[in-house]
């Protein structure tokens, strides 16, 4: 991963180790849509106890559901790397797509042509109004990096925050080892 200075579609927002917002502590957010009007993203490394078949009746696979963020947790979103199977997919990065035809997703999941290794499902999302993310960036609450689809799909959620920082090297590699509560060190 490489640090960048500007947020674009496909950027990763990596929570600084001392970020005090419990919704985003040690989180990595993939920016799916960024404009002057606001930003929409999905937290990549917060798991839930739910599976896809728990929330969608006609899906028969137990793919895990991730918590995409604190906004509208009654909505379902997905990231994938199979635009060849899913019409209407929105490219957010190299080999990384968001959304698309959900009927095709369900069918591909049910017949096994869309394995868990190629798609992640999220309940809720992360959103910032106009200027809100810029304000948080000015406060140095987030580190911006370029996303990599392979890393996203092949890194376990509990290792994601630390793994992204380590892959960036230098000061970020050291930051990956900061304790959650330095007083307990």
Structure description:
The chain is an alpha+beta fold and 185 residues long. The protein is 23% helix and 33% strand. It is built from 6 helices and 10 strands, in the order ββββαββββαβαβααα. The protein has helices at residues 52-55, 102-111, 132-138, 149-154, 160-168, 170-175, and strands at 11-15, 28-35, 38-43, 47-51, 64-67, 71-80, 90-93, 96-98, 119-129, 142-146. Strands 1, 2, 3, 4, 5, 6, 7, 8, 9 and 10 form a 10-stranded mixed sheet that branches. A hairpin with a 2-residue loop joins strand 7 (90-93) and strand 8 (96-98). It starts with 10 loop residues before the first strand and ends in a 10-residue tail after the last helix. The mean pLDDT is 92.
Spell out the key features of this protein.
185 residues; 10 strands; 33% strand; alpha+beta
**Gyration radius from CA atoms, angstroms:** 16 Å
Largest sheet: 10 strands, mixed
Percent helix range: 10-25%
Query: In DSSP terms, counting alpha (H) and pi (I) runs of 4 or more, how many helices?
Result: 6
* Number of beta-strand segments: 10
Order of helices and strands: EEEEHEEEEHEHEHHH
Average pLDDT level: 92
Structural class: alpha+beta
Q: Which descriptor suits the 3D outline?
A: globular
Determine the strand fraction and express it as a percent band: 25-35%
Through-space gap between termini? 28 Å
Low-confidence stretches: none
Please provide a brief summary of the model.
This protein is an alpha+beta fold and 185 residues long.
């Amino acid at each position: 991963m490489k640090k960048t200075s500007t947020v674009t579609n496909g950027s990763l927002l990596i929570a600084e180790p001392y970020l005090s917002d419990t919704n985003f502590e040690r989180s990595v957010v993939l920016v799916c849509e960024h404009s002057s009007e606001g930003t929409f993203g999905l937290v990549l490394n917060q798991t839930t106890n739910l599976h896809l078949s728990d929330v969608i009746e006609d899906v028969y696979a137990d793919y895990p559901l991730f918590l995409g963020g604190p906004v509208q947790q009654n909505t379902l979103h997905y990231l994938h790397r199979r635009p060849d199977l899913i019409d209407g997919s929105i490219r957010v990065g190299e080999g990384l797509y968001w959304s698309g035809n959900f009927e095709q997703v369900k069918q591909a999941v049910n017949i096994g042509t869309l394995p868990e290794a190629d798609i992640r499902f999220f309940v809720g999302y992360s959103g910032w109004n106009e200027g809100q993310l810029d304000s948080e960036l000015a406060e140095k609450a987030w580190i911006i990096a370029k996303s990599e689809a392979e890393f996203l799909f092949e890194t376990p959620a509990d290792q994601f925050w630390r793994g992204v920082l380590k892959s960036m090297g230098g000061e970020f590699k050291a930051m990956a080892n900061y304790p959650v509560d330095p007083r307990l060190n």
